[in-house]
Amino acid sequence: MSRRPTKHGNFLEEFRPGEVFRHRRGKTLTEGLFAIFTDFSFTTNPLSKNVRYARAYGFDGLVAPPGLVMNMVFSQSVEDVSENGRANLEYIDMRFGVPVQVGDTIEAESLVLGVKASSRERDRGVVHVQTTGRNQDGRIVLTYQRKVQVWKGDLDAPVHEGEVPARDVAVSLELPPYEPGRGYRELAHLTSADTYYEDFHVGDVFEHSRGRVVTTDHVMLTGMLDNTSQVHCNQWMIDQQPDRFLGGQLIVYGGIPFYLCLGLSSPDVADNALGDLRYATGRHTAPVFAGDTVFATSEVRGLRDLSGRPDLGVLDTVLRGHKFARKGDEAEKVEIFYLEREIAVKRRSHYA
Amino acid sequence: MSRRPTKHGNFLEEFRPGEVFRHRRGKTLTEGLFAIFTDFSFTTNPLSKNVRYARAYGFDGLVAPPGLVMNMVFSQSVEDVSENGRANLEYIDMRFGVPVQVGDTIEAESLVLGVKASSRERDRGVVHVQTTGRNQDGRIVLTYQRKVQVWKGDLDAPVHEGEVPARDVAVSLELPPYEPGRGYRELAHLTSADTYYEDFHVGDVFEHSRGRVVTTDHVMLTGMLDNTSQVHCNQWMIDQQPDRFLGGQLIVYGGIPFYLCLGLSSPDVADNALGDLRYATGRHTAPVFAGDTVFATSEVRGLRDLSGRPDLGVLDTVLRGHKFARKGDEAEKVEIFYLEREIAVKRRSHYA
Amino acid sequence: MSRRPTKHGNFLEEFRPGEVFRHRRGKTLTEGLFAIFTDFSFTTNPLSKNVRYARAYGFDGLVAPPGLVMNMVFSQSVEDVSENGRANLEYIDMRFGVPVQVGDTIEAESLVLGVKASSRERDRGVVHVQTTGRNQDGRIVLTYQRKVQVWKGDLDAPVHEGEVPARDVAVSLELPPYEPGRGYRELAHLTSADTYYEDFHVGDVFEHSRGRVVTTDHVMLTGMLDNTSQVHCNQWMIDQQPDRFLGGQLIVYGGIPFYLCLGLSSPDVADNALGDLRYATGRHTAPVFAGDTVFATSEVRGLRDLSGRPDLGVLDTVLRGHKFARKGDEAEKVEIFYLEREIAVKRRSHYA
């Protein structure tokens, strides 16, 4: 008998700047994945709920919310990039391209932009990647950079430190054209009357009223994305070395609070959106565990036209997620998520 | 910065008799929602399991069980009507129309029939609505009245008390015609041999043998329906004021035990049904919490012909749900649900 | 009022050797059932993930992994055969036929091969059945024998002991033909580069690196299969007589660790498989409960050609599942599953 190595993702010393991973599997968006992921997030945008509305707006069928597109692409990169990650540090310049619809197959690849050992802890370091997802026609649906803290597998192995420049991936949100004859106004009752572009002002702050507890269902949700990172699902591993892992318990995969914050904000700022354009930067500022109730707030920082689309305007917002932690008799608000988010929102003048 | 109001449903003082809500979003019945909701309920009717059987009976595809139709329509009304509900009091005259199949899009509206402040507690009152759901062709799939106890938002705000008459919504179950050439008998082994109309007698009582525990999966199931009521999913809110909420913990959304009781009864009384016709009245008599095991019983109160359909007969039944609670060393049976239910059941003479 | 008997499955004294059950319901494989069941298992084979890959290999759409085929057929037999089972003892000669794809409807039947009362415990005995599942075209998708320990309903009832010979069910895995023009190599990056037939050697042992905790989601997963066995979902029943049930708590339905072990092994031994051929024997060697983390190992016992398919080779493996149990301060490894498994794996010479 001979023991064979088994698949377990890469450790810090295995990454090389300039290396490209064509991620395995790919993922077809079934109605099963769509329904569970879209609905758990509390998104209210009817593009993802009501096929009659989606078709009236020029889509072929139900449209994946931005959080689902992000999760489908991100999770494909986990096995190669972050299965042995300790913490996801930052999302950078995440831009959306062609919308993703039920039935689409998404495949992803990542370019290693940088590798750096920690100067203080010799068991870890930072990997910087640029990840791009494409649909079955080869068209880009999402591209972004991220930085992730990754464990070393062998403390004595040399780390291939270095940096390479990012690729210039030209992509921006592609939407069906505005066509006055489509009868948008007949469906205007399906969205809120007060969330058109004209309703927002710089400085507006929305404390979204709904919260949602994350239960152990996070294990199933994460598995549905083929996200193999063990800190989300391997209870035994955590129990052996609780000190090694944040919080000493299964940590909820970051894509879940990411998506949930987008969903909780949806009725107030994205109910009349046609899509998210770009996330300039984003980060998880504290971990989430089963039992936590997640809340979100949005702040409008800018309002601007969208080139070539007089029917739409852009909301520049900051989306924050938080939970509460007990501190003796007090409840302490803990920020868990920060995202600079640009949303393409319908103008009342054209749609209602 | 200016704080903006956020979506949170209506409070008692915001309702006006005669007001009509065209509920937002709508909902397309994907295979994801269908599979999870239908299967969790333990329904055994092959119309919702086996597309070969459903097509042989003249449907285009899998048929949504009555409990799923009820949940799809009801949940759309939550944001406007009962997001701030304390307890759902009664369902009245719930009638089914055109069957709902996978791929259908359902939209709903509610007319406010009555508003009444509580005479004893100044923080709540009762809202009475008539809700109707339609499919993408504008055909009615369900209509019913319900009464719900709703919190006031501002204790000092005046309540717009009053009543308006209900609309006359003419609707009854529409089924594909009986066609002797369809070869129903070749599929007769797919249902129980002893649950045809001829097998029932007035006075029959069925203590359905199966039970099913409700786990924290109720949070996900409720979210999948876009039901935004916070008492089902906002753990933090409950923890802040446990005295204010029934049981001091997350309460399971009533549509779940409603549907589960229908499913648990299915093998004994609805395995050979083609549909439910009407629920004259229904109510939740005690709350359900995660960890409770739900059971059901059915009692046959009447048997009658169905006009124009000699192949079918109507079972007038009472469906009751119960759970058990510990009382010291004893187990106490607690009724949780009561429904007067009329079922259209196949006659053996025509189908087996 | 008259109390009517209710559906509850068969007890030992109700089985007769030679009896055939045509199981009720049947089951259409929706995208909902497919997505949840396939993804929870951590399978990595893109035939079940990526419709672009599945079509390139000659399938019409996403292909059900062997564990899903097994679960769909097995669960249909539960109501008749093992709803009152105490423990599933053995799977014998499980062979796969036509692949199952999304949209297929599977129906199953079982022949009772043997009935035997326990010589030591008068409340139970063993039932031996041969179960076969067919698709909507009448073609066999799976056939196998199993032995299950079943409770008696009435301790004094006579047991119809005896045996009948098994039917000769001729079935073997049917795969789309190898066609050099299909461009398999262009998709080779979607699977691991080191899991082709040529990469394996007799004696190879893989300790699959990933583990997955089973949460209370097992109740929902089991319900989605229409598996009505009460030991998986009726918490109240267990609480009344904890001594009667293995472990004194809800026991996870065996199909879940069965499927999960297949999935956990997938990246190392089945990522480049086109299907599983046969399980000569299999058994659950210890129960699994919510909270257990499941792991798996594979051992290669033989390598051989597959008749008529020079593009494929057969891996004869043993798949074992295990979990860990605390014993004071020590962790004890507990084997939970054993399966002799034959896998049809692509040859690098033909595909990469």
Description:
- The structure is a homotrimer of 352-residue chains.
- Chain A is of the alpha+beta class and 352 residues long.
- Chain A has seven helices and 14 strands.
- Chain A has helices at 31-40, 51-56, 66-82, 217-224, 235-240, 255-270, 348-351; strands at residues 2-4, 20-22, 27-28, 85-96, 105-117, 124-134, 140-151, 162-163, 204-207, 212-213, 273-284, 293-305, 312-327, 330-346.
- In chain A, strands 2, 3, 4, 5, 6, 7, 8, 9, 10, 11, 12, 13 and 14 form a 13-stranded antiparallel sheet that branches.
- In chain A, strand 5 (105-117) and strand 6 form a beta hairpin.
- The longest helix of chain A has 17 residues, at 66-82.
- Chains in contact: A-B, A-C, B-C.
- The A-B interface holds A 30-36, 39-40, 42, 44, 46, 49-53, 62, 102, 189-192, 201, 203-213, 215-217, 267-268, 271, 291, 293, 295, 299, 323-324, 331 and B 1-4, 6-8, 22, 24-28, 30-33, 35-36, 103, 105, 107, 136, 216-217, 219-220, 223-226, 228, 230, 233-237, 240, 250.
Structure in a nutshell:
3 copies of one chain form a homotrimer. With 352 residues, the first copy, chain A, is α+β, with helices and mostly antiparallel strands. The first copy, chain A, is 19% helix and 35% strand.
